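INPUT
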Amino acid sequence: MRLGLAFLLVVVLAGISLWVGVSGISLARLAGGDPRDWLILWESRVPRMLALVLSGAAMAIAGLLMQIVIRNRFVEPSTTGTVEAAGLGLLVMTLMAPGAPVIVKMAVGAVFALGGTGLFLMVLRRVPLRDQMMVPLIGIILTGVLHAVTTFIAYRADLMQTVLAWTQGDLSGVLRGRYELLWLGAAMAVIAWIAADRFTLAGLGKDMATSLGLAHGRVLALALVIVSGVTAVVVVTVGTIPFLGLIVPNLVSLAMGDNMRRAVPWVAVSGAGLVLVCDILGRILRAPYEIPVGTILGVIGSFTFLILILRRRRDVA
Amino acid sequence: MIETRDLRKSYGTSLVLDGVSVTLPRGGITTIIGANGAGKSTLLSVISRLLSPDSGTALMDGEDIFRINGPELAKKLAVLRQENHLTARLTVRELVSFGRYPHSKGRLSDADRAAVAHALLWLDLNDLQDRFLDQLSGGQRQRAFVAMVLAQETDYILLDEPLNNLDMKNARAMMLILREAVRELQKTVVMVLHDINFASVHSDRIIAMKAGKVIHSGGPDEIVAPAILREIYDMDIEVREIENRRFAFYYG
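OUTPUT
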């Protein structure tokens, strides 16, 4: 019921998103069959709205999945090296096989993302963890290293502009034909929902999961494949959306806990809603110019993140 | 019946299991006692397939525990480790429902729901079932974990120091619950215990370990005796019999 209301709110936001933009379109002209208005709606506004909803929902679910299986509240693809590694993979493809189809580049990006996440987990196993804040800190250090490698290569190859497009979530370039890969990300998020019980179970820890007959290693691997796939798809189509995978699952967790079967729909709806709001804000605050959605989320997200850290700290103490 | 044959396990240079061959018959409460580092938890981890030994085998009803497929074994044997730190926020009912996972694979049937309700009732958790685990006291949380293990409806229940962090009242209640589970539900409970008097009063069998070896096993009347306790713990312990039960005095 409450989920239904939240869903309705996202539909309304999606509707508003269609109407915001530099070129005005009107219901009257659309009804009259005005070709220019229809063209804008169909080629630009609808793709952009769908891209927002799909990437928002998928990234938020990827964040939740990561937090559950890694068992730390402060990880998400952009604090574990996953996003940076995906970007590095895309850069490598741009250099080595510039003519390859986007789906191939994305697949390579996903493989790199998986590698980056694996590297992160390997480092975690070797470091004695005294504090759960150590986990995202290690991730951020790894992210910095990967970022430096990417920047170095991009600088040498004169590809800084291209890299910027991946590191900054921006939807102004989304048109029909350039976002459809995101459906793949949404499909992966659906798998996360179908296998939700297994992931929640894996989140109880290796011993407890094994005692309940779960092949813990396999489930963990599946989760990381989903997270890497979603990340690569989103990075290649709209760029990095920071903090989304961090704040949405944390807020949902505070409200209703982490049983993934229950939490996934809420996380998806909230993720989509938050990205829509940030994008609408980005388009009206400095109209006719645009503030990228990644920037807006960066501001909102970092404040929320701080509040969450202080809150969790108090709970632990 | 669970039996082990010549189990060996070492971490680095320290040998924690040094040729353990032990038989745990069906039914009753078996407690494993011994000083810190004697290998108790390691033995429990091996017979619950959470840790593979360097050599030797662990058998359940004649089958190698590491060869039985995971979901099948989870219907026969449940284990609860000592540290159960959860990052995921779950309610008590959700946690206990996950105890049904080997049977339900996530889709709870009526029988599953009945088992969950029974486990909640058994551990007196009905009033707390919709609370999140992070809102509970240590004792309540421990009860929730034990309820999860009971809901799994296995013949064997293995517990690593289930009384840890429990106050006297909760510790006593937990032991009585386990005793009742053994008597009424025909469970086989194997647990690591530190409190020698709880072990003495409630065990059917005690297994004593020292430096990776099983040095004694038998009923409380055999094990709770000054000479044997001195061998296990390297200290003099006075034993007195009160109402046919043996108590160790080591507080002075």
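end of record. The longest helix of chain A spans residues 35-70.
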